[in-house]
Amino acid sequence: MICACVVSTYIHKEDATVLVQGSSGTDRVLQVSSLAQVILDPDCRTIRGFEALIEREWVQAGHPFKSRCCKSVYSKTDSKFESPVFLVFLDSVWQIWQQFPCSFEFNEEFLILLFDNAYCSKYGTFLCNNQKERKMNKLHEKTISLWSYVNQPDFLKTYLNPLYEPNSDVIFPSVAPQSLCLWKRLYMRHQLDLSSHTEMWERIKFTKENNLALQLRTSRLRRQVDALSKELQEEGISIHDALVRSTGE
Predict the structure, then answer these.
(1) Residue 36 burial by CB count (10 A; 0-12/13-18/19+): exposed, middle or buried?
(2) Is the model's pLDDT at 3 over the cut of 90?
């Protein structure tokens, strides 16, 4: 996150061109470049924008998901290629998300969905190590994309953040140790009772939806009042006279 913040600072404040270089360019480089885009670009903080970011910066750029996520992150393995690179990226996004909860269209369930599918998935998005392997295995014929599932209206609403308010500003997260939290919803979901956490978000969602319904009703009533006022003016009747007549006074 620190490196991503440095890159974002140079791009945003100094209008500089930054080259992010690594040994293979398919691990830490992708973490830094992706996080920098999340910080700088509000589109990457929407669901479809984040999907495009993952597809562009991770899938098509050749992150070796098969090698890095060859076993569950909770199990022991002797594979020298296994590494939770993608998980570290998702965790970093969550750290920014919990500092700016109103700036992301998606909720943490969406990030957890990506984590789960990176390690075990019935979709072809995170299978194989690169595009060449995917083409050789004809994944486009044998599987469907994870995004085709997520973007269905009935399922999409599950991953929407009820607090979301579009924010075009750059969001610089704090990287101080006291600002970073343990992602309990992911790492401890099988040990802790998180029902109160789920209930809280359900209440927030209900309140937001109820508030939206009230706003729509208010707008509709205002339009009706404006229409009635216009009719009264055309007939030469003042609003006061109309009220007097309606009350029979």
Answers:
(1) buried
(2) yes
